[in-house]
Design brief:
28% helix, 6 helices, YbaK protein, alpha/beta, eight-stranded mixed sheet
């Protein structure tokens, strides 16, 4: 688990932006299937859009953080064309830790707090959001570690992403053959 200081800093930043969240504590989860299993007893509390967050890079070592509906299968070639990168592969654990400050199993858009882009510069990574995921009234992501899940509205998620210096791309995967 990441430090409680990191989570507290995230929550302070969100509060400073006027973003209200709700966080639910649970045993650490490492896969979508494990995350689904913790929701069985909390179905009403955790009703909304759940995502898998992908940290990918292309052949030129440009990086992207992509949030897709947890049930969506992703073809990296199709994804690459959607986000205008080429020949995607998953980023390494070392790259994930150095760029976003999280470890595999804890990838989250909230990690952008650790990779804030200075104004008037090119952002160090592409941030993409699944249009279908964003249609939910509430979205759920890990708060920098995988032993909790935090609810946020789609509008507030975009406010947060923009406050970190990124302009999120909203991607429609409806007519794309995706498979991961």
């Amino acid at each position: 688990m990441e430090s409680s200081c990191a989570e507290a800093s995230l929550f302070t930043f969100l509060a400073e932006l006027g973003i209200k969240i709700q966080t639910y504590r649970h045993a650490p989860v490492f896969t979508v299937e494990e995350a689904k299993s913790i929701r069985v007893g909390n179905r009403g509390l955790l009703s909304g859009g759940h995502a898998k967050s992908l940290f990918v890079r292309d052949k030129k070592k440009r990086r992207a953080l992509v949030m897709v509906d947890e049930n969506r299968r992703v073809d990296l070639k199709a994804l690459a064309s959607k986000i205008e990168l080429a020949r995607l592969s998953f980023g390494s654990a070392d790259s994930l830790k150095s760029m976003l400050g999280v470890v595999p199993g804890s990838v989250t858009p909230f990690a952008l707090i650790n990779a804030r882009a200075p104004k008037d510069t090119n952002a160090p990574l592409v941030v993409a959001l699944d249009k279908n995921l964003m249609a939910h009234p509430l979205l759920f992501f890990h708060p920098l570690h995988n032993a909790a899940t935090t609810a946020i509205t789609p509008v507030d998620l975009c406010v947060f992403i923009k406050a970190c210096g990124y302009i999120p791309l909203e991607i429609d995967f409806t007519n794309t053959a995706l498979s991961i």
